[in-house]
Amino acid sequence: MAFxxxxxxxxxxxAVTLSLAATVQVTxxxxxxxxxxxxxxxxxxxxxxxxxxxxxxxxxxxxxxPQPVLNYLSALHNRTDGRPVRLRLGGNSMDSSTYxxxxxxxxxxxxxxxxxNDQPVxxxxxxxxxxxxxxxxxxxxxxxxxxxxxDPNSTNTPLVAGDAQKVLGDDLDAFLxxxxxxxxxxxxxxxxxxxxxxxxxxxxxWVTFGNLANTSDGDVLSLDKIAGPTICCSWDLSAVLTxxxxxxxxxxxxxxxxQHYPQNK
Length: 265
Description:
Blueprint: H1 2-20, E1 47-50, H2 54-58, H3 67-77, E2 85-90, H4 92-96, E3 98-99, E4 107-109, E5 121-123, H5 126-138, E6 141-147, H6 156-168, E7 172-177, H7 198-212, E8 226-231, H8 237-249, E9 253-258
Parallel strand pairs: 1-2, 2-6, 3-5, 6-7, 7-8, 8-9
Antiparallel strand pairs: 4-5
Keywords: Signal
InterPro entries: GH79_Enzymes (IPR052974)
Protein name: Glycoside hydrolase family 79 protein
């Protein structure tokens, strides 16, 4: 009986295996379409870095960047057909932190009681020096940097943008304006506002846009490096795009960005 059951199980496994291994006929086109071709380059995928942990990855200054990190990024660069490695620096901590240009330390924690998923820090211009040194060492990095939208009237946001652009130059690929604004209400980032809507968000975007036209490196809007909306959870991307946000800011947008987590459908 046991032997017959074994044979039956073996036949079943073979049948399933043969079914899974069935030949699928694929006929690729002889040539790519001539119109509206979207090219996905070899450096499309990148690495996302949280600001509050940046010293763990890149040390405290240009002389202490860990060699294993440089080796790893160099290995990635060698596999991108000479294109820059794509690195994003941002997260909740970038949205809640303060840039102090003359601060000597790359980052300093400012709230020891902060939630682990949103640890505000202060950071100095040495951060941009480290980012530039990393890019120069490995052969090229396309940096995407978060800009805070928590206070659209903040003078710190254009200060970050101008100094980052001044140091990084062409290595600065894009500014991610705002991090998960669809969670501003639930995270308490709009006190006194019962529901932070897409239309409130558009208004904040306009205010910050006006400030980014006057930074320490001039009008960074003219560089067309802005990216958004970088939502994740509570708003539908298509609804944001059709709300007027895309038509309002399309001329200055480089990327449309979306945060996506394993639990998102």
